[in-house]
Hints:
By secondary structure, the protein is mostly helical. Helix content is 75%, strand content 0%. It has 8 helices and no strands. Helix 4 runs antiparallel to helix 5, helix 5 runs antiparallel to helix 6 and helix 6 runs antiparallel to helix 7. The relative contact order is 0.10.
Amino acid sequence: MTRRGRWLLPALAWLVVAVMALAGLRTAVLLVDSWQGQQRYRQQDYAAARTAFARTTVLNPMSAWSAHFNVGTADYKLGDFEGARDEFSRALSLASQGHTCTVGLNLAWSLEALGGTQRDGGQTAAARQSLDAADHVLAGLDCSSQQATQRAETQQRVQSTLDQLPDTGSDPAADERARQDALRRREQQAQEANQQQRASASPSARGSSASGGVQRNW
C-alpha cells in the first residue's frame, strides 16, 4: 500500500466517527427539544411549545411525521387552524400506516375548525371548501375501535355543518350584510369568552374530539 493509501484510511475512519458523533448529537438535541415542547404544551404555553416542536422538524430522520404533527397540535391550540391544517397535512404524507388515522383525524378537526371560523366570518365559499376537504380526509381513513367512532361522529358534524351553509349564489349585498353580522357576533363572542376565561379555570391541555379538539401522540 502506498503512503497516500495509508494516509487515506485513518482519515476516512475519522470522518465516519465524526459523522456518527454529529448524528448522535443531533439526536440528543431532538430529544431535548421534543421534551421541552411536551412540557410547555402540558403547561398550556402553546407558543413556547410550538417553538420547541418546530425545531424538531429540521434534520429529523427518526420521526419526521411526529415533528410536524406536534407543531400542528400547538398551532391548533393557538387558534391557527390554517397552520394546523398545513402541519397535519405534512405529517399525514410522512406517517406510517399505524399512525395515519390519528393524523388524519387531527387534520379533519383542523379543517372543521377552519371551516367554522370561515363560516362565522361570512366566508361561505371558503368554509364549504374547508369542510369538503375535511369530509374527503375522513372518507379515506381506515380507523379501528374508538377512532372509528370518532371518525363517524366527525363526519356527521361536518356534513351537518355543510347542510346548514347558505347558498353561495345569493345576493352580494346580502352576503356583505351577513359578513358584517358575523363579525359583530364574533366580537361579542370573543368578549364573552374572555370574561368566562377570567372567571373559570384553564381548560385541559388535551382536546376532545366531540368539540373538534386535537389529540396528541404522546
